[in-house]
Specification:
The protein is mainly alpha-helical. The protein has a domain of about 45 residues. It has 2 helices and no strands.
Length: about 60
Amino acid sequence: MAQAYLRYREDEQLKRISQEIIVEQLQEIAAMRMALSDPIPPSAAVSTQAGAKLAPLSLAHSTP
């Protein structure tokens, strides 16, 4: 939802909040993957710059 807001909305304050949400969630996902000894896939790298082309965020757990 935060990615969609960054892409399609104009309110700068809410865009900043959306960026913060995305960064925090990515950090939490990375911490969980590290705790599970699961490598972080390249698709998890998501741009948080407003107006940037956003990559899909992969939340699926991959098994070795």
